[in-house]
Structure formats: structure tokens, C-alpha cells
Specification:
This protein is α+β, with helices and mostly antiparallel strands. The protein has helices at about 1-30, 35-55, 65-90, 100-125, 155-165, and strands at about 130-140, 140-150, 175-180.
Amino acid sequence: MKANKRTVWFLTLLSLVAVISIYYVKKEAPMPFDGIAIFTKETKDATNLLEKEGKSEEVKPVFAESYIFQDMRMEVRNERSETVQQLTEKMTSSDFSAEEKNEIFNEIADLRKVSSTEALMEMQIAALGYPEVFVRGDGDRVNVTVLSNESHSPKMADEITQYVMSSWEGAQTVKVDFAEIKE
């Protein structure tokens, strides 16, 4: 029992020391939670550094098309969630037979399967070396839009097409578009 009390006191003391040390570390270098202030400070520091080196003309704002992809993903997600909600309301209604409800359930499952397959394809194509990818499946047609800062080639499009055709069950047509990063 005596060793148990020592262990408890030791752990209490150790945790107290850890809390106090974290408090003092944070007190000396507090981190604000304002994300905008963090980015503006870093941008100002980078601008000052470039001005000291005489490269102030090379600072150009970059428009990130990946935000467009995020907007497109949100639109597709919202569209599909509305469809799922409508189908769920039909399924819970007593106006439909068991066979019709089963078909509605299968439609919902297919929508979820397409959404997860699109997300998986986006991750796997990004792993091939493309910075930002948007994949949209519509029946047997798959549209792939790739954001690239390099010049694209038919070989790159063929690589993506072959990958999608081999990985996506039921894909008959694959369309690959490249969007270049604008500076």
C-alpha cells in the first residue's frame, strides 16, 4: 500500500509540473486564435523579407482554383442530400408498395456508393501526383477535372482515364479536363 501512495504522489507531482511548464511556455509565446491575423503576419514578414532582398516585384497573388472545386463538391453534395431526403420521405410514406420502397432504398445506396467512389478516386488520382482533382460520376459517365501547374499532355490524360476505367465499376466514358493554376 505504501508503494501505491508513492506512485499516486509521483504522478500528481509530475502532472502538476507538466501543467505549470505548459502555462509558462504559452505565457511567453501566446498564439492568437485569429487565423486571419496569423496569415497577415506571415504575409507581411514574407513581403518584408523579399523587399530586403530586392524582389518586391515578384510577389503576386495567386488565385486558388481549388476553392472552385470545393464549391463544386458542395453543390454536388447538397444536390445529392436533397435527393436522398426526397427518397427517404417517399420510403417512409405509406403510399408506396414494398417493392417500390426497395427500389428507393437501392437508389439511396447507389447515390452513397457514387459519392464514396468519387471521393476515393479524387484521393487516388491526387496520390498519382496531381495537386487538386474533382471527380463527378453520372451513370456510366465520369468527368475528371485536374488542377495542374504543369503543362498537361495526352499521356497524363490517358493515365487518368485508364486508372478510372480500371477502378470505377460501370464507367463507360471518362472525360478528363485540365485546368491550369493562374498566377
